[in-house]
Design a protein that fits this description.
Structural class: mainly alpha
Largest sheet: none
Order of helices and strands: HHHHHHHHHHHH
Number of strands: 0
Helix content: over 70%
Number of helices: 12
Oligomer: single chain
Distance between the termini: 42 Å
Shape: elongated
């Protein structure tokens, strides 16, 4: 919602200022300029993006417009989930975690956190981190490096749509110039039609330059930056899992491992230490 408010402010301020200065918004509506500018911009997006990345661009834009992202409740649920898993491993041995990790959809623990269970990427990251702990195939000190490598790969992949949108945004002022040049060519071809026609076509050409710059700096680049912030939030969620699982694998008590994860969070989503401890201790023991 906030991003839509920002878009409305940008558009309203621009059109409002233009009207205050004596302009008429209708003179900015030249279909040919919109077709050239946004058609080329979409073409650049398609040319520069592999199919998978193009789908991710659409997905990330939808998420940004919808204001989706990990909220404080998501982190509260994550910390409680981690604590429950660690307590089962501490009380019943690591082998007791196998039924939960291998079949999370049937797990009595995971079922209590349906939002987490439905998020495939978050679920898989946690499970991939817990499997080596259960199997004992790697040393606890090596687990952190393994999970960090996976996290780095996720971060790089998540930033591909940002790079593509920045490319499109940086290209749009130049695309606007292309539209303006095409408009001037049309103007020169109609110069014998009189000053009124020439003036109208020059205005249309200048609109092309305006639209390219306006769309780039008012919408596309800010949208790319918002997606970058969303990616950083998602990376923080994964880092929280990494901190807790690697700490537990190194022998930290469940409460201490979760506390390490809590401290890795931003203040905007970080629960208080006493509040979290009280909440965790109130969770019924899982058999």
């Amino acid at each position: 919602m906030l991003i839509l408010i920002g878009f409305a402010i940008v558009l309203g301020s621009t059109i409002g200022g233009f009207i205050i200065a004596g302009g008429h918004p209708a003179v900015l509506l030249h279909l040919s300029e919109f077709v050239v500018i946004f058609g080329i911009a979409i073409g650049v997006l398609v040319i520069a993006s592999p199919g998978k990345v193009l789908k991710e661009v659409v997905h990330k834009v939808k998420e940004a417009l919808a204001g989706k992202g990990a909220a404080k409740k998501d982190y509260d649920d994550l910390l409680k989930l981690l604590y429950e898993i660690f307590m089962v491993g501490r009380r019943n041995g690591l082998i007791a975690l196998e039924e939960h990790v291998m079949n999370p959809n049937d797990s009595s623990i995971f079922k209590r956190y349906p939002a987490f269970l439905k998020h495939a990427e978050r679920r898989e990251f946690l499970i991939n981190g817990l499997k080596p702990v259960i199997d004992g195939k790697i040393k606890p000190d090596q687990l952190e490096h393994l999970m960090q490598a996976e996290l780095d790969a996720k971060g790089e992949e998540a930033d591909h749509p940002v790079h593509i949108l920045n490319l499109v945004g940086d290209s749009m002022p130049g695309i606007g110039i292309v539209a303006a040049v095409l408009g001037i060519i049309n103007t020169m071809a109609a110069i014998a039609d009189g000053p009124e026609v020439v003036g109208e076509r020059v205005a249309a050409a200048l609109t092309g330059t305006f639209l390219g710059i306006f769309a780039a700096y008012g919408f596309v680049n800010p949208l790319a930056n918002r997606i970058k912030f969303n990616n950083a939030g998602e990376q923080q969620y994964f880092r929280c899992i990494l901190a807790a699982v690697s700490g537990f694998a190194k022998g930290l008590a469940p409460l201490t491992a979760v506390e390490v994860a809590r401290r890795s969070l931003d203040s905007s989503v970080q629960p208080g230490a006493e509040e979290l401890e009280t909440t965790l201790k109130a969770i019924p023991a899982t058999k």
